[in-house]
Amino acid sequence: MSLHKILKIVALLLSVAGIIFLAMIIVKGDQEVIDTGEGLDGFLYVAYITLAITVAFVLFFVIKGVFSGNIKNTLISIGAFLLIVIVSYALADGTPMQMRDVSLSASGAKWIDTGLYVFYILGILAIGAMVLSGVKKVIK
Question: What are phi and psi of 121, to 5 degrees?
């Protein structure tokens, strides 16, 4: 059996399980689910299994691609990403926040700021790459 057929069967089984758990949640009613949280466990297990399968395949194909391709370019890309994370961490101020019922430590705030800065920098780089690609096409 090919990998594609196996993946289709697994996707079908997870879809059916998700539909069954969704039906169980709908039958129980919104208020009971809100009050007790019952019925969500199965739904979450389907999500966890789907996430685990996705992460496993991503890691497998990334590692396969690293060893079959040019490792120098891969290391340069990883280094550039780590540089962006380091710069973002240096830019983050990490001011602790006090919200209604939750307090956020300085360390937690710094890592959240770092994640936001990484997202902003990578977003700007992606938009810049798309604009540059479009300009190059227009020039040719």
Answer: -65, -45
Domain end position, chosen among 45, 69, 93: 69
User: Alpha-carbon distance 136 to 140, whole Å?
Assistant: 6
Span 40-75, pLDDT tens digits: 777 788 889 889 988 998 888 888 877 777 788 888
User: Coil, strand or helix: which one is 97?
Assistant: strand
Does 133 lie in the same domain as 99?
yes
Q: How many residues are present in the chain? A: 140
Q: Are residues 61 and 98 in the same domain?
A: no
Task: Give the single-character DSSP code of 39.
Answer: T
Per the prediction, the chain carries an average pLDDT of 86
Residue-range definition of the domain harbouring residue 26: 1-69
Domain boundary among 69, 86, 119: 69
- 29 sits in the region (left: phi over 0; alpha: psi -120 to 50; else beta) called left
Query: Which residue is listed with tokens 């090919």?
Result: 2
Q: Which residue has the higher pLDDT, 97 or 76?
A: 76
Q: How far apart are alpha carbons 54 and 10 in whole angstroms?
A: 12
Name the domain count of the chain. Answer: 2
